[in-house]
């Protein structure tokens, strides 16, 4: 039977990182399930001329959180989109580790910027309320700094492995990604 996993398995990591990855994966699934339940319930209610007024606002909030948490999940597995033509030309093992390290340092810098600027936006959002739910807009804005911070943890772990000399093939199971 063909393996139906859409994402590769989480790479080997210390228990706290595996725990964090499991929390992110579970949150994505639960948010998606909540969205399905709310939208389906609203569709059924439309048959009785009823409506859940906050469905659209809730759906937007859930989609934003799911998207940004999905980034963290992809970073954990090295499953995000990457253009590797240039880095693949770098010979193994030491020069490639240096190149991988430089790329991860750049990613870490970008994630730090997203945590900072996302935190600034979220902090400003506490005074603005969502139209229907009345929740602070910061609830939605927090998805950027929180997910970026989680992704940063995974990038730092990869940098630790790079500095210890662990090649990409051992850091990530490059043969586990399914191609349909």
Label this structure with key terms.
single chain; 180 residues; mainly alpha; disordered C terminus
Walk me through the structure.
With 180 residues, this protein is an all-alpha fold. The chain has one domain (15-170). The protein has 6 helices and no strands. The chain has helices at 15-46, 55-77, 94-124, 138-141, 143-163, 168-171. Helix 2 runs parallel beside helix 5 and helix 3 runs antiparallel to helix 5 (143-163). It is elongated.
Mean pLDDT: 89
**Rg value:** 20 Å
Structural class category = mainly alpha
Oligomer: single chain
| Count of domains | 1
Number of strands: 0
Using the alpha-carbon principal axes, give the shape. elongated
Report, as a whole number of angstroms, the end-to-end distance.
Answer: 14 Å
Give the biggest beta sheet.
Answer: none
Give the amount of beta strand, in percent.
Answer: under 5%
Number of helices: 6
Could you state the order of secondary-structure elements as H and E?
HHHHHH
**Spans with pLDDT under 50 lasting ≥5 residues?**
176-180
Secondary structure: helix percent: 55-70%
